[in-house]
Structures are given as structure tokens and as C-alpha cells.
Amino acid sequence: MVKIVESVEIKRPIDRVFAYSTDAQNWPRWQSTIPEAERTSPGPVRIGTTFRGAIRMMGRRMKWTAVATQYEPPGKFGKDIACGPVTTRQHNTYEALGGGTKLTIVYDVKAGGLMALFSPFVESSMRKALRKALDNLKAVLEAQP
Fold first, then answer.
1. Where are the beta strands (DSSP E) in the chain?
2. Which residue in 54, 111, 138, 143 is deepest, having the highest Cβ count within 10 Å?
3. pTM of full prediction above 0.85
4. How far, in Å, CA of 24 to CA of 34, rounded?
5. Which ranges of the chain does DSSP label H, i.e. alpha helix?
């Protein structure tokens, strides 16, 4: 299993960062590797909420599904993501920083089958994509009034 950890400080209140970053409709707006994402279960987001979408990684487009495993506004959000032979446990933590927010995202990634042979490439690609996504999220949120 590979662990990827990245953080960003965003000059916006914690509740705003939490709400925006946990809304599946917004994921394609700040994660360039996710061209589509949607919530597939009814009602508000909670533990057990399901999602689906697509990801572009290493020149391929793959479908994924996910289920929320943690939902504690405005401090924690987690989901288990299945994308072919790759499974990822995502854990987001949000910390208030005097008018701003520190967001840390942790991916615990497990690649099975032939993808296990490519796990160093998968890790490198995911790490770069996460860093870029967090920088994009910061830019998007800080540009809003």
C-alpha cells in the first residue's frame, strides 16, 4: 500500500472550504484528472453516500465509484474509491487557521493485478495530480468574493 499526503492553506473559512471540496459537482472544477463526478445516492451527503465518475490518469480514462466513509462537517471527510484494480482510501482533514483553512488529503492506495507492477508510476502520477488539484482548489476558492 502506498500513502500520499498533501496539504494546502486556503484563505477562506473552514465551512466554505469543506462545503465546496466535498460537493461532487465541484470536483471536476478543481481536479483536472476528474472530468466527471456525481453523487448517486439521494439526500444530503453523509456516511454511506455514493458517488461515481471518471478519471484520466497515465493517458487512460477509467470509471470509478466511491462511498463516503466519514462525514463530520467541517472537519473530516473520507471516502473509499474503487477504480478497476486500484482502490484508494481518501481522508480529508480541515483545520481552521485564523480566517483560513488548512486542508490535508491523505490517499492510501492499493494497486492489484497488473497495476501492482506499475505502482511506482501510479503513485507518482497521483501525487502530482493531488498537488495540482490542491493548488487549483486554493486558486478557485481565493478568487471567489
1. 2-10, 36-39, 50-57, 60-72, 76-83, 86-97, 100-111
2. 111
3. yes
4. 10
5. 14-21, 27-30, 119-143
Distance between CA atoms of residues 66 and 7, nearest Å: 22
| Three-point CA angle 140, 141, 144, nearest 5° | 90
Q: Are 27 and 39 in contact (CB under 8 A)?
A: no
Class of 2-143 in CATH: alpha beta
Q: Which is nearest to 8 in space by CA: 129, 94, 127?
A: 94
Query: In the numeric block, which cell numbers belong to residue 54?
Result: 471518471
Could you give the strand order of the β-sheet that contains 60-72, starting from the edge strand earlier in sequence? 2-10, 100-111, 86-97, 76-83, 60-72, 50-57, 36-39
- Run of H or E residues at 99: none
Pairing of strands 86-97, 50-57: unpaired
Tens of pLDDT, residues 41-96: 999 999 999 999 999 977 889 999 999 999 999 999 999 999 988 899 999 999 99
Q: Compute the distance between CA of residue 36 and CA of residue 38 in angstroms, rounded to an integer.
A: 7
